[in-house]
Amino acid sequence: MLIARTIEALDAARAALGPLALVPTMGALHAGHVSLITAARAQGLPVAVSIFVNPLQFGPNEDFARYPRDEEADLAVLRAAGCALAWLPETSVMYPPGDATMIEVVGPALRWEGAARPGHFRGVATVVAKLFGQTRPERAYFGEKDWQQVQVVRRMVHDLALPVIISTVPTLREPDGLAMSSRNRYLAPEERRRAAWLPAILRDLRVELQSMMGADPSNDSADDNADNNADDSADNNATKLALAAAHTRLEAHGFKPDYLALVDAVSLEPIARPRAGSRLLVAARLGTVRLLDTMSVDHPPAAPAAP
Ligand code: AMP
C-alpha cells in the first residue's frame, strides 16, 4: 500500500496506480468503512482512502479535539482491506496558507444536520471538492448512514459538473442494530446498551408508516378529488402522530432527539405522508454522544399473485 502525505507524493502515487476509486474518511476506521472499500474494490479500480479529520466541518463546541485518531491502527485496517493508497494530508496541505475558497451548498444542505450544525456542510463540501481535486478519482464511495451528506455531495458534483461518479453503500450495523460509527466508542456501557433503541424505534416507525402506504406507487401523486384530499389530511395527521409517538419513545429511553423527520430522499424536504422515495432521518444525543440513523420508507414489495 502506498502512503502519501504531500501533493507531490500523491501525484507520484496517482501516476503509478492509474485511475482510482476514492473512499473519503475521517479515520478511526471500522467495518462500515471497510464495506465502502470492499464495494469500491469490487468495481475493479485501485482504491485510495483519505483520512483527514476536517476542522472546517466541526462547530466551535463540537468534538474536533477529541475525535478519535489512531493512524497506526487505521493503516493496518487499510492494508488488510486491500487499499492501494492511503492519502493522509496535514491540515496545512488541505488548507494551504492564504486558502480563500469554500463551497456553499444550499438546497439539501439547509435542514437537519445543516440546521443543527451551522457550517457543517460548507466544511464537508469544501473538503470533498478538495479531495476530488487532489486525487481525481473516477468514482467515490459514501455511506448511506450519512444520507444528507450524500445528497449534498451529489448536488455539488452535479452543479459543478465534477467528473466523478458517486456510489453509495448501505449502512453496516452492529448485531443489535446500532449503525457502526467512530463515535460509538464514546458510549458508556449502559448507554451502549440503550443505543440499540434508536434503530429499533426507527424500524417500528418505518413499519407503521409503510402500513399507511398503498401497495401501488401510482397512487402517490396528489389528486384534486375531494375524497382524496380528505384522505391526504388524514395521512398527514397519522404521519405527525407516528413521528411524535416515536419522538416520545426516544425520550423515554434517554435520548435527546435533535430531529426525527420523514423527508423526500433527494431534496431532504419534509413530507406529510410516506410515499415512494421517502426516508426517515434521525439525530439524537445519548449522554454526550450524537447518533445519526436513517431508513428508507418505501412501498412494501407487492404480494405474490394468488395461484
Ligand atoms: P466518517 O469517517 O465518519 O467521515 O465516514 C466516512 C465514510 O464512511 C462516510 O461516507 C460514511 O457515511 C461512511 N460510513 C460511516 N459509518 C458507516 C457504516 N456504519 N456503514 C456504512 N458506511 C459508513
3D structure, described in words:
- The protein is of the alpha/beta class.
- It has two domains: 2-169, HUPs (Rossmann fold, 3-Layer(aba) Sandwich), CATH 3.40.50; 182-296, Pantoate--beta-alanine Ligase, Chain: A,domain 2 (2-Layer Sandwich).
- It has ten helices and nine strands.
- The chain has helices at residues 7-17, 31-42, 71-80, 91-94, 113-116, 120-135, 147-159, 189-195, 197-211, 226-252; strands at residues 2-4, 21-25, 47-51, 85-87, 139-143, 165-169, 256-264, 278-286, 289-297.
- The strands form two sheets. The protein has a six-stranded parallel beta sheet, with helices on both faces.
- A hairpin with a 2-residue loop joins strand 8 and strand 9 (289-297).
- Helix 6 (120-135) packs across helix 7 and helix 9 (197-211) runs antiparallel to helix 10 (226-252).
- The chain starts with a strand and ends in a 10-residue tail after the last strand.
- 35% of the residues are buried.
- The site of adenosine monophosphate has 17 residues, from helix 2 and strand 5.
